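Sat 14:20. Reprocessing the chain from the morning session after the first attempt stalled halfway. Input below, unchanged.
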Amino acid sequence: MANAAAPSFPVPPGRPFAGLSPSLIGFGGAPLGDLYGHLDEVTAQDTVRAALAAGINLLDTSPLYGHGLSEHRIGAALRSVPRESVILSTKVGRWMQAGAPKGDGSGYAGGLPHPAVVDYSYDGAMRSFEQSLLRLGTDHIDILLIHDVDVGPMATGWSNASPRPWMAPIEPLRRCVRPARSRRSASASTKPRCACGLPAPAIST
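Finished this time. C-alpha cells:
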C-alpha cells in the first residue's frame, strides 16, 4: 500500500512561501548534526530523502546542529529536488569560527570541527545567515529564526518596556528577507516576518 502524503494546511496571508503549503509535520534536523550519536552520510541523506518522498516539505535546521553538519547534509539532499518545492528554516545566534579548537561541540556527539561563537549582534546575525546560505547551497532562506532567544545572554534584563537587548538581531532578519535571498520582498506593503519568540511589542514595526 502506497504511503499517503503528509497532510498540509493553508498558508495564512502574508507568509513568504510563494503559495507553497507547508506540510503539517516538519522535519527537524538536529539529529543530522550527530546530536545523540554519529550518523553516517548514507543514513543521513536517506533520512532526508525519505521525509521528502513522504510529502514533508518543511525542513528545519540550525548552525548549532553539529556546528554546521546538519545544514551541510540537508543542503546536499536538497540538490536532488527543486528548491521551490521545499520550505527551508534555519536560525541565527551562532556562527562558526574556522581554524579554532572545536571545544565541547555544544554537547553534540559529533559534528564539524569548528567552534560555535554565540553572537546576537547585527554583524553576528548576518555572518550566521551568510554561512548558512553557503552550507545549504541556496540563495534564500524561507524562515529565519533567532535561536535560544529565551536563554543565556539574550534573556538577561528583558522587560516589555525595555526591548533594547533583543533588537540587534531583529534588523538583520528583516534585511535578509529581500528578493535576492528570499521569496518575498520587503516593502511598505509586504513587511517581512521574523519568528523569534519575542513579545509582540519588541518586534512591532
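The chain has one domain: 27-203.
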